């Protein structure tokens, strides 16, 4: 790599993970080196001293490590996404009073999706790896689709009114957390 050249950022769904000590894992916009430990009290994940500690009963089992970390990400996403969705619904209360049903899925090509007719809002599980301002942007973006199903002038006017720096948040997401 040449000096001052930005390393290629690989989308999460294209990364090959081995779940070994030192491997970098994202959470809320930060990279954490993984530390894998044997557990005698069940599987768990915790962030400690700028490290992601993964405790599993069988450290040699790739599937056990993958499933434990995936369940932890999902639990964190459920809590944080509900909180951010609630905040964005309050922010957008002049545009919609619909309370959507939140679903969390892995989607290889979109951060979120909204079905105004069924009042279902879907957020990508991998969004939990992005910074909180980016999560807020996607949550607001999808909430506004409850009022504006397409990306028309009304949609962008509302988005710009409620979150004037949405372009910056979108740019960070697309540049450093690509799908």
Low-confidence stretches: 1-6
- Got a strand count? 7
H/I helix tally: 4
Distance between the termini: 23 Å
Give the arrangement of secondary structure elements.
Layout: E1 24-27, E2 30-38, E3 44-48, E4 51-56, H1 62-91, E5 101-105, E6 112-115, E7 120-124, H2 132-144, H3 153-162, H4 166-176
Parallel strand pairs: 2-4, 5-7
Antiparallel strand pairs: 1-2, 3-4, 6-7
Can you offer a commentary on this structure?
The chain is an alpha/beta fold and 179 residues long. The chain has one domain: Metalloproteases ("zincins"), catalytic domain (Zincin-like), CATH 3.30.2010. The protein has four helices and seven strands; from the N terminus they run ββββαβββααα. It has helices at residues 62-91, 132-144, 153-162, 166-176; strands at 24-27, 30-38, 44-48, 51-56, 101-105, 112-115, 120-124. The chain has a four-stranded mixed sheet. The protein has a three-stranded mixed sheet with strand order 5-7-6, with helices on one face. Strand 3 and strand 4 form a beta hairpin. Helix 1 crosses helix 2 (132-144). The protein is elongated. The two termini are 23 Å apart. The model is unreliable at 1-6 (pLDDT under 50).
Name its key features:
3-stranded mixed β-sheet; 4-stranded mixed β-sheet; 4 helices; disordered N terminus; Zincin-like; single chain; about 180 residues; about 35% helix; elongated; alpha/beta; 7 strands
In short:
The protein has 179 residues and is an alpha/beta fold.
